[in-house]
Amino acid sequence: MDAAGNTGRLLYKIYRALTYGLTPLVHLHLRWRRRRGLEHPTRWPERLGRPSLPRPSGPLLWFHAVSLGEGMAAIPVIKRFVQCRPDLNILMTTTTLSAFEVIKNQLPSSVLYQFSPLDTPTDVDTFLDYWKPNAIMILESELWPNLIMGSSRKGISLALLNARVSMKSFRLWSQPVLLPLISLMLSKFSLIIPLSSMQAIRFQILQAPPFIINFSGDLKYAIECDASNGETGSIEDLKGQLASRRVWMASSIHRGEEKVMLGVHKALIQVYPDLVTIIVPRNPQHGLEIAQELQKGGQNVALRSQHQRIMPGTQIYMVNTLGELRCLYRLSPVAVIGGSFFPGLAGHNISEAAAAGCAVLTGHHVGHFSHMVKEMQRLNPLSIIQVSGTLELEEAIMELLNDTKVLDARRMAAKQAFCALSHGIIANVWNLLNFHVLRVSLQES
Which residue among 70, 257, 352, 375 is the active-site one? Predict the structure, then answer.
């Protein structure tokens, strides 16, 4: 083994020793998070690798995502596995409580769902020894040393789906001190499916073996709107309440961005007195706080969490719930995607609004979603509108609401770009996993 490999193994031994020594503190921190409501009140021991479900006999594939967006991207792939390989057991894990609350209702009934273990040697080994997965499919950027090295040591195949490395992480990981460890970890994967060509280049610079890097398309184009019958009825009821009103939506907004959106609302309501602005904050608690402030100022706000109806005098509909956004886009011809109007933010998934046939607007601070903006704009320049603040956003929405032809052209462009980019993604991922991962991991079981 070369010097870099030896250095990588040495760095991992140091990491493993540190995380082993810090395990009591990590566990104390977990209990502190539980008391603050940041972990599940009864299922938090799953984070220690302790199962709450029996492990069925037979081969088992483990899909892991950290949070809601990545978890939702995994669901269409999981459904393809359930359909094509019903003989396999599927385990899904996520880290965040918000992801759990939504994803538990979206998975096929046969899929086992747990919280992911902390990356300490004890917790990871406890988890792996119990579940004994044949292969692990990790979403996006969850590169935890104990998980990856422990899985490799036990002969478990690894795949990284929708793989990405943020610019901040890339600069850190490509430093001479850390690169040998990252290179060692990436060498343990059988397959890496990068988010974009730029991401593929980053993984190659981080010394991932070139032959394991393959393209399929961005899984976030393939997220489904899978509402239950009750939710579908609720959306249709909202459509009826909004039938005679002009509507626009501001989604996934972060703290501070509400000032931009409410500034635009204030200008638009002067021109369109029948306007309804739908606001969907990233954090439901943030939505409640915005609504309370607006109500103190005398504004008529309807809260979705309280099932309040949109009445003739309602100007703002506050969606302070989780997991409904993709279906809610069907309510509005215009969607502004937040998390993109201030430096330091990194954008959100614009394809969900495009899939619903919205005219899509976003700010310029879109992080790794820049590849999605560029792909859609390359296919049709009318598909995405990027603006720089309150005034530009106000002017852009005003033009859309004033001119039906412009609005229809923007909506059609977004929908067409989405359809072109989403075609065949799940089939591509299935074929790659079947060839690079399943053939090997199931033969070895």
Answer: 70
Q: Is 257 labeled as catalytic in the residue annotation?
A: no
Q: CA distances (Å), 81 to each of 91, 107, 191, 257, in order?
A: 11, 12, 17, 39
Predicted confidence (pLDDT) at residue 444 exceeds the cutoff of 80: no
Q: Enter the pTM of the model.
A: 0.89
How high is the pLDDT of residue 229? 42
pLDDT digits (tens, 9 = 90+) for 169-208: 999 999 999 999 999 999 999 999 999 999 999 999 999 9
Residues ≥6 apart with Cβ < 8 Å to 288: 303, 305, 318, 320
pLDDT tens digits, one per residue of 377-425: 999 999 999 999 899 999 999 999 999 999 999 999 999 999 999 999 9
SS3 string, 382-409, reads CCEEECCCHHHHHHHHHHHHHCHHHHHH
